[in-house]
Design goal:
By secondary structure, the chain is an all-alpha fold. Helices cover 70% and strands 0% of the residues.
Length: 150
């Protein structure tokens, strides 16, 4: 059974990446553009340049989009994970110890989901894999590019 499940790992990981990236990008779009209920469900937007809300929303939109596409997944996921750790410890955790008490469930889950993607990579369906294949075909072995020493 384990062997059969291993075959599906990259595909399930790719789907996981797509869903997490899409949900994260939606948070950023809501805060920046007032769509999908807007910032904090108010229908409004965060003021441009305000700390930390506007910067968090930009990280959410850009990072979520990159993760969704599987482009620069590890770096985008690392930045997104760090932003969610910051959000949890600076915004939510001072209110109470547990995420259920302080409203930080989403921050904690996004933080750990993105940290997982840092270590696993994009999985299937990612642009990283397509670009890697294209550049691998253009590379030549080192002995072909290194001049011979006489």
């Amino acid at each position: 059974m384990t062997d059969r499940l291993e075959h599906f790992r990259p595909y399930v990981l790719g789907l996981f990446r797509i869903v997490v990236g899409l949900l994260f990008a939606c948070h950023g779009a809501a805060s920046l553009f007032g769509v999908l209920g807007g910032a904090a469900g108010t229908g409004g937007t965060v003021d441009a340049g305000t700390w930390p809300g506007w910067y968090a929303a930009v990280i959410q939109l850009v990072g979520g989009s990159l993760v969704l596409l599987g482009l620069g997944t590890r770096v985008a996921a690392l930045i997104a994970s760090g932003s969610m750790a910051y959000a949890y410890f600076k915004v939510h955790q001072p209110g109470a110890l547990w995420p259920m008490e302080n409203g930080g469930e989403a921050s904690a889950m996004f933080c750990w989901a993105f940290l997982l993607l840092v270590f696993t990579g994009s999985g299937a369906f990612g642009l990283d894999r397509v670009l890697d294949r294209r550049t691998a075909g253009q590379r030549r072995p080192a002995e072909e590019t290194t001049p011979a020493v006489v």
